[in-house]
Amino acid sequence: MASIVAFANQKGGVAKTTSVHSLGDAFVEAGNSVLLVDLDPQACLTYAMGVDPETLEATLHDVFAGRVKTKDILIELEDQPALLPSSIDLAGAEVHLLTKTGREFVLARALNPLIDQFDYLFVDCGPSLGILTINGLTAADMVAIPFQCDTLSHRGVGQLLETVADVRSFTNETLQVLGGIATLFDGRTKLAHQVLESVEEQHGLEVLPPPIPKSVRVAEAPGKGRSVLRHAKSSKPAIAYRQLAATIARKL
After folding, report:
1. Up-side HSE of residue 185: CA atoms within 13 Å toward CB?
2. Rounded to whole angstroms, how far apart are CA atoms 9 and 14?
3. Which residues constitute the domain of residue 180?
4. Cα–Cα dist 152/159, whole Å
């Protein structure tokens, strides 16, 4: 049975989607079968993997609405993770789910038929603490928290950890915090090092090594439909993501 990890942070621009995509590729490189789940209506992960959301006949929105089965939207890519794609329609699903009984468990039920086909499932949650993110946390075994090394990180991390506590109380009592992922890290600045230290001290959150360095190579990759591991395989961020993947594999 696959290990399910949700990647969540309601603060946008923290390289969450980049981390999901890059770690997915790193795990595939290491010989694992991986499924990436795009739970963000902006569909950035879908696009970054070279899939145009506007050309898809069905996405997770249609699964949640009961129109298709999960296996019907599964996209399998050569030498890459498989994908459950998103589209802007998923924003409508969030409104639709609010009126439904058991709305927090829709994703868990959708993923259940695929659990035995993969070693790992990585869920890319959107930049909010709405019902879609709650679904991601409810379906997951663990949650990883990507955060940018800046002064606003503390607030976002603290709010998410409060939400994790609520999810444990009401929908997923076994949910564990895998750790924080420091992204867009500029080791030349004192601020970046201070943020790393203070996140651990203030929130008791283990930051998984290594931090991911800031690089234009990472920003270029989505436009190519690739992760940085495939776009610039010898770059510092690609090496760091491979090392981070090894750290995570030891903890799962």
Report:
1. 21
2. 8
3. 3-251
4. 12
